């Protein structure tokens, strides 16, 4: 009996680590595009436009992936709910890596004119579709392998969520290394391509690791006990029978996405506009990612003790209040305060991010879980992450004050409070008994 428990724990940890590594690589690909969209692409893909317009156009291409993510969640979720989680996770990793590599060899405006921006948009859409299918599968593999009674389910699920700041850290770290190693001219000419090309090497690592894990035991059990009804697609069933839960899923993430992109990506834009060096923006982003990496497992553990619902509400309120303090500290221009503001902001965000990998899958039955959790998670990204940099930049252009941006963050997080508080209590993850370690 004890040996069987050790084996199960080893399997759960293996799946969690595989989810962490594979999803980190996908987020690395996602975030190197974000860094390039803020610092490089306006100059090499939209050089004919006014600099402010070029930046907005570049950020809109960044947001394209968020529009494509729900499509990826629905597409890969359909097959993930029908044929299994493991194979789909392999496919999403290959698709993401291929699109990222092709961006790294893409001709710029100087060679292809407007066609270069068009191809950039196409590849960005493919990135979004791949990442849209990735998160749901990775979260489900960990959640379903852990089982309903595991007292560490929230903590294990948070391993998938750690992938986002690790990918962010890797992306910004690589960009920082390249920008420090070459001149500004060389960086614009060819240096920006290095982070994209390096992705192809990382993908092979992720594929090798994911090959070693087993299919989700809950999915296999569901296939035996509840044969799929071929006439009803998982997406149709989600919209027909689980619309309320889908809205709760969207609301529970939307505000946290706004907070994340303001405290991280928009910070890079904001500091450069204020005449501060872009090296400070990258340094703040890297150190803030470290604080989030520490915070997510901590809050994942806490979600097992107090419940994901309470944690999401508390984190949203703290994040809404911090948004105003954040810009007061950043507006000083003092490097230490800028860095501290970003680090604290992303640490608070960890409380919003950590519970999602267990909170969202728990809402849906196994037969439509990949689709329901994935579509809910990714649809929130359109309103939250996809539009946040553009909306924040527009607010700054119109009102000429960071208070307008802080208010935008606070409103987004209060929407999350309403969604989580007002959502069905049946859709929450119940805290595990303190003594339960099965």
Automatic annotation (TrEMBL):
Record GO terms (molecular function): transmembrane transporter activity
Keywords: Cell membrane, Membrane, Transmembrane, Transmembrane helix, Transport
Transferase found in the keyword field: no
Annotated Major facilitator superfamily (MFS) profile domain residues: 15-428
InterPro entries per record: MFS (IPR011701), MFS_dom (IPR020846), MFS_sugar_transport-like (IPR005828), MFS_trans_sf (IPR036259)
Main location: membrane
Pfam family, one: MFS_1
Topology relative to the membrane: Multi-pass membrane protein
Annotated transmembrane regions: 15-41, 53-76, 88-109, 115-142, 154-178, 190-209, 246-272, 284-302, 311-330, 336-363, 375-399, 405-423
Compartment(s) where it occurs, according to its Swiss-Prot or TrEMBL record: Cell membrane
A GO term from the CC aspect: plasma membrane
PANTHER family per record: SHIKIMATE TRANSPORTER (PTHR43045:SF1)
Protein name: Metabolite-proton symporter
């Amino acid at each position: 009996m004890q040996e069987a428990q050790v084996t199960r724990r080893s399997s759960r940890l293996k799946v969690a680590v595989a989810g962490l590594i594979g999803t980190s690589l996908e987020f690395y690909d996602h975030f190197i595009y974000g860094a390039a969209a803020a610092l490089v692409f306006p100059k090499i893909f939209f050089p004919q436009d006014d600099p402010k317009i070029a930046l907005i156009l570049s950020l809109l291409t960044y947001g394209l992936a968020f529009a494509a993510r729900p499509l990826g969640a629905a597409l890969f979720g359909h097959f993930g709910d029908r044929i299994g989680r493991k194979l789909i996770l392999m496919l999403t990793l290959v698709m993401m890596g291929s699109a990222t590599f092709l961006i790294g060899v893409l001709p710029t405006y100087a060679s292809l004119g407007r066609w270069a921006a068009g191809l950039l948009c196409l590849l960005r859409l493919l990135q979004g579709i791949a990442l849209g299918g990735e998160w749901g599968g990775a979260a489900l593999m960990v959640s379903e392998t852990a089982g309903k009674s595991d007292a560490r389910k929230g903590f294990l699920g948070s391993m998938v969520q750690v992938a986002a700041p690790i990918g962010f850290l890797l992306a910004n770290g690589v960009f920082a290394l390249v920008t420090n190693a070459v001149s500004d001219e060389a960086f614009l000419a060819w240096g920006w391509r290095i982070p994209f090309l390096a992705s192809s090497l990382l993908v092979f690592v992720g594929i090798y690791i994911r090959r070693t894990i087993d299919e989700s035991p809950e999915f296999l059990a569901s296939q035996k006990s509840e044969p799929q009804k071929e006439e009803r697609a998982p997406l149709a069933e989600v919209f027909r029978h689980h619309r309320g839960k889908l809205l709760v899923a969207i609301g529970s993430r939307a505000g946290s996405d706004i907070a994340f992109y303001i405290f991280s990506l928009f910070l890079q834009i904001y500091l450069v506009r204020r005449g501060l060096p872009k090296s400070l923006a990258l340094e703040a982003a890297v150190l803030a990612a470290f604080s989030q990496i520490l915070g997510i497992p901590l809050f994942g553990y806490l979600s097992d003790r107090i419940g994901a619902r309470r944690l999401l509400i508390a984190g949203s309120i703290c994040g809404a209040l911090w948004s105003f303090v954040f810009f007061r500290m950043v507006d000083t221009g003092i490097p230490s305060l800028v860095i501290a503001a970003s680090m604290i902001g992303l640490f608070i965000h960890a409380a919003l991010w950590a519970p999602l990998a267990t909170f969202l899958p728990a809402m849906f039955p196994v037969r439509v879980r990949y689709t329901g959790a994935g579509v809910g998670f990714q649809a929130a990204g359109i309103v939250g992450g996809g539009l946040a940099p553009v909306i924040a930049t527009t607010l700054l252009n119109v009102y000429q004050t960071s208070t307008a941006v802080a208010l935008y963050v606070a409103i987004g997080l209060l929407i999350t409070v309403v969604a989580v508080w007002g959502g069905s209590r049946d859709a929450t993850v119940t805290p595990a008994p303190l003594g339960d370690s099965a």
